[in-house]
Amino acid sequence: MFTSHKVGRDESWEGTVVTKSRGMLDGANMYHFVEVRLADGEVRKVRISRRLWKSVEVDDRLVKRPGADPVKE
Length: 73
What we know:
- Helices cover 8% and strands 42% of the residues.
- The chain is mainly β and 73 residues long.
- A five-stranded antiparallel beta sheet has the order 3-2-1-4-5.
- The longest helix is centred in the last third of the chain and has 6 residues, at 50-55.
- It is globular and about 35 Å long.
- The termini are far apart.
């Protein structure tokens, strides 16, 4: 079964970047991911934009508000 890492528009969360990765999952497009440790200790892998991926480092804080894309805080 396929699991989407794309962030839902109505989701909200905040956490700290644990790792960064990227890959060509479909062989044609580059996808950028981060693993984020949430306040409750859960680690979630989410897909983010290339621009955000290039600007974040491990231990940076990301915030996702409903109706918006994740941003570095």
